[in-house]
Amino acid sequence: MKMKLVLAALAAVVLAAPAQAGPREDILQGYATAAKAADPGFKGFDAARGKALYEQQNTASADAPSCSTCHTASPLKAGKTRAGKAIDPMAVSATPDRFTDPAKVEKWFGRNCNTVLGRDCTALEKGDFITYLSSL
After folding, report:
1. Per-residue pLDDT for the chain (136 aa), expressed as one digit of tens each?
2. Boundaries of domain holding 68
3. Residue 108's CATH number
4. Euclidean distance between CA atoms 3 and 24, whole angstroms
5. Which of 26, 29, 30, 55 counts the most CB atoms within 10 A of its CB?
């Protein structure tokens, strides 16, 4: 009887505790705040837009005309840099720690958006991109 009371009390505490967002969700929330500031009509991120960005062919770089140039057409597969270095799959299901370190996320968006798109990605694009790769 006493054990049942302890378990019931523990369950009540666990169920009453607020859900903790993880680092990826915190990063997405930051992008959502920035996207809303840029466009008050912002309604949320969209995996389909993220997929389109991933697959988009660009003219900013002849060496890297799309994300899939280095990351492969399937985000579930490992890619390779132009120098031949292996890149872990982009899909969160294949690389669970993907998009969890804010400094790394910004570093790679900064580098890759400029290489592929010839410009910085917007907060909306970053959020859509992470949302897409989190959906796989």
Report:
1. 443 433 343 344 334 444 557 999 999 999 999 999 999 999 999 999 999 999 999 877 677 789 988 999 999 999 998 899 999 999 999 999 999 999 999 999 999 999 889 999 999 999 999 999 999 9
2. 45-136
3. 1.10.760.10
4. 37
5. 30
